[in-house]
Amino acid sequence: MSYKFDIFDDREFETFIRDIIQKELNITLQSFKAGRDKGIDCRFSGSINNEIIVQAKRYTNYNNLKKAVNIEIQKIKILNPPPKRYIFATSLDLNPSQLDEIGNILKPYLINNDDIYYESKLNNILSKSENIDLENKYYKLWITSTNILKRILHNSENNNSDFNTERILKSSQLYVYNNQYLKQALKILNKEGPSENFVGRNYFINDGEKRLQMSFEQISSLQNHNITNE
């Protein structure tokens, strides 16, 4: 299974990377509230402070990522004490040349390029059977997988799997978690009108596997009334 990690917002991606690194290194990382981070998204302080520094960057364009890396390395240079190990993660996929280029920018704090996490490597980690808990925890990843969505939709009442899959993928890019919004979502789903499909798709995104069958059965019945109005 191959996932796209730009489905996360910046904060979600940081949390996802924190959990990945903790599992990979069998350590507990310190994480911090949102705000200026001095080049630190997470860290491990064992025998010394700043022993391991983790930085996560969510970008969809390599040139923008490279600019950000050049800024981050300047922050790392003034950390006291300097990190013994620096780990960098990006939502982008990288080819060998790009991986080497990022690695060279981050020297000498990056021990080697194995401490750079990118799309292909993250997918490789998630594919391991021992990491199924991470895959299950971050159900928002499922929205980027057409295969998973089609398998889910196959069990619902409607026959528009391709249509709904495409619409959900687009909606997921716009979705921002809002608890108050979700409280109203089910009420809206019980009414006729042009907005039920969008609400249903985003309710699906938030509530994950527990609500899948219910959400799409509701969308299926509502779609007959509203498809011409969208």
UniProtKB/TrEMBL annotation:
Keywords: Endonuclease, Hydrolase, Nuclease. Pfam families: Mrr_cat. One of its GO terms (molecular function) is DNA binding. Gene3D superfamilies: 3.40.1350.10. One of its GO terms (biological process) is DNA restriction-modification system. Residues 8-63 form the Restriction endonuclease type IV Mrr domain. InterPro entries: Restrct_endonuc_IV_Mrr, tRNA_endonuc-like_dom_sf. The keyword Hydrolase applies. This is Restriction endonuclease. It comes from Leptospira alstonii serovar Pingchang str. 80-412. The lineage of its organism: Bacteria, Pseudomonadati, Spirochaetota, Spirochaetia, Leptospirales.
